[in-house]
Amino acid sequence: MAQSKATKKFEKRHLKDTLDRRNGFKKTKQKQQLKAKKQARRREENGQPEQPEKQDGGKAKSAKDAFQDMSVDDFFQGGFEVPELPQTKKRKRSEPREDVEEEKDEASDVSFEQEPVPQIGDGSDEESEEEDVEGHKQQLDALAENDPEFHKYLQENEPALLGAELGEMDEVSEGEEEPRRKKVKKGKVPTAEADESEEEAMDEESSKNELTKAMLDKWHTALTTEHSLRATKEVVTAFRAAAHVSDDDDQQDFKYSISDPDVYHQLLTLALKRIPEVFAHHLPVQESKNGKLHVPTESKKFKTLAPLLKSQVASILHLLSHLSDASTLRLTLASTLPLLPYLLSFKKLVRNLAKAVTTHWSSPANTEPTRIAAFLLLRRLTVIADAGIRENVLKATYQGLVRGSRNTTIHSLAGVNLMKNSGAELWGLADSGGVAYTTAFTFIRQLAIHLRGSIQNNANEAYKNVYNWQYVHSLDFWSRVLSSHATPPTSPLRPLIYPLVQVTLGALRLIPTATYFPLRFQLIRSLLRLSRATGTYIPLAAALYEVLNSAEMRKAPKTSTLKPLDWQTSIRAPKAYLKTRVYQDGVGEQVVELLGEFFGLWCRNVAFPELALAVTVSLKRWIKDVNNRAPGKGNKNQKLNTLVALLVQKIEANARFIEERRGKVEFAPNNRKGVESFLDDLSWEKTPLGAFVVGQRRAREERERVIEEGRKVEEGRKVEEGRRGRKVNGRADEDEDVDVGEDEEMVDGEDE
Predict the structure, then answer these.
(1) Is residue 77 within 8 Å of 39, Cβ to Cβ?
(2) Among 347, 484, 526, 713, which is least packed, fewest CB within 10 Å?
(3) Kind and range of the H or E element at 294?
């Protein structure tokens, strides 16, 4: 007879709780019976008469009569048994139940209110245990006769409740659980021979799962000739094991194991090169006329290939986090490019891939070809993806840039510039759809918040949130982004020029001391680039004149033998450089160079004489003050003063040149078109100030070339010294009679 729906629901939801409650009540009842027997024995020993248990022809006394003849002492001793009320008729299990509450109440023999009250017992003896076991067996026999289906259910799910005695059940529940044995097929008994055969089978299986070259050759043939999906699945599975081969965890979860390095290398090459070809064969990417890519994700092929794609990309992500070889990294990144169109449906996978790729793109430890390969993958993802994925890629790119520019040296500067230039290109590719503007605005606003916090907080270390390489490189990066993509008047990024300029000007004036003149020059170069590319006028002459007018540049310097400061890799001058002639000469050269670059941007402008007038007057006054030869006055630095005077002459010559050309024009000042086209036919290098700026650039390039050559010579000399030192140490180790002091004198003599 089939069980009803209500019965199944009850067995699923409430049967276990009901059985537990029944067992608890039975144990309580047994304890009460045992206690009553002990009370009877005590009364017999004390000579007290026994209390009648039944009246009126064997009928149980009522609840009122049960307490009528009981004394107060007996009541407080607790030696009474609560009389049971008449039990309700048990409901048949085949009858339908209306709700869960009725199921729970009708399943028990008595209702929750009619159950015996639990009391604390004193223990049990052998007689009571035997009686309890006999009663339990009688109840089970009655259950088998009245409800065979429920009895069968208990046999399958609660065998301990039917076959074990109460005492044994208590011992098992209180003691430690027995260890679970392995499941044995029906009709078979586990023996020692069976265990040995099972272990041999496992050993044979593990040996069969060892990857060999023959298996790889077979898979390679199937992939190249037939594009077999079965072979693709095996290769993806083996590639997953290869990607996790360096993990500390056990490799038991993987189907294949790899121990041969040649097999490992061959498997990586096969999986990285051939798997994308299989995807392209079975599910070719469709390209529309406007260049957008489409993958038929509704097809059965895509549903078949999707698990393989997820496994392949997950293995690649794990492999990228553990690889260190440059060639293998480039191969892994290049093999991911063809898989990008298929990944666009899996947003989380694409986001994880973008983070992993930007990590290698921004890592100074990677080689330049590896970082370029990572950038090509980010670029491809930005081109083919939608707005949501583009935003994730741009955010990951900027975070990688900030993370990779923490420390800047002469060796890492080229890598930082590579990141800034390539990252700026991504913002140009994501210009459509407003993603570029929203992300750029968010990050520029974040820089402004950091600056505001440093200004409002007067703590000694608050300025360090702004005066660090990460902040400087971030401002320089956004100047490159706007210089490259905010040039057209209709560009959506053009409104960001004003907030970026304001943040940069506030940052360079935060600490106006001589220690941070290098940082000021770094930020001014960023603004000059932005002004040159977008044609926006940015007042930088005042910030440069503040440097000349500082106490560092107006007082006589101290002589020093320090080498010139490297301005490209410095944002803070060491304390030893302050108030020295080396530092003063370097600062003066930077100010003259940057002022020349600033005025060179407007050397053909019709308003150049008016623009340069105030600066010219201020510079002449400064030259007059510092050339004062009175004791305690002037800077006594003829080289610096001569450079500034030469700059003033070139600015005045360019102003006279513009005035001469301006006197020959025929348009009025209110003619906007004529004003903008003034001297368009003349190259800026042919103006007096332009020729001076060109000469300055050549001198700076020559100076940088000499410094770079000197750096290489110094590094070569250090390498040679280290090599000779190792040779000397080697000879000292071989010949025990050689004195260490003599070796040191020999090395010192060679160095001299």
Answers:
(1) yes
(2) 713
(3) strand 293-294
The rounded mean pLDDT for the chain is 79
**Tens of pLDDT, residues 659-687:** 998 888 888 878 888 888 888 888 888 89
Q: Is 473 helix (H, G, I), strand (E, B) or coil?
A: helix
pLDDT at residue 68, as a whole number: 52
Q: Which of 193, 237, 341, 330 is nearest to 279 (CA)?
A: 341
Q: What is the pTM of this model?
A: 0.68
Ramachandran angles phi, psi of 60, nearest 5°: -70, 145
- Euclidean distance between CA atoms 572 and 56, whole angstroms: 110
Query: What is the crossing angle of helices 387-404 and 413-429, to 10°?
Result: 170
3-class secondary structure, 588? helix
Pair 329, 346: CB distance under 8 Å: no
Helix (H) or strand (E) holding 205: helix 192-208
Sign of CA dihedral 338, 341, 342, 347: positive
Degrees to nearest 5, angle at CA 706 with 703 and 708: 110
Of 113, 61, 108, 65, the C-alpha closest to 89 is: 108
Tokens of 413: 């500067």
Give the tens place of pLDDT for each residue, 8-43.
777 777 787 888 888 888 888 888 888 888 888 777
Summarize pLDDT for 495-523 with one digit per residue, the tens. 999 999 999 999 999 999 999 999 999 99
The residues facing 558 across adjacent strands are 580
Count the neighbouring beta carbons within 10 Å of the beta carbon of residue 707. 15
Interstrand relation of 54-55 and 59-60 (parallel, antiparallel or unpaired): antiparallel
For residue 291, the 8-state DSSP code is S
Contact of 678 with 604, CB cutoff 8 Å? yes
d(CA 292, CA 184): 58
Q: Return the pLDDT at 48.
A: 61
User: Which has more pLDDT, 70 or 498?
Assistant: 498
Over residues 697-712, the pLDDT tens digits come to 898 888 888 877 877 7
Six-digit token pair at 25? 């009540």
For 190, what's the count of Cα atoms within 13 Å in the CB-facing half-sphere? 8
Tell me 16's DSSP state: H
Question: What is the token pair recorded at 142?
Answer: 């009655």
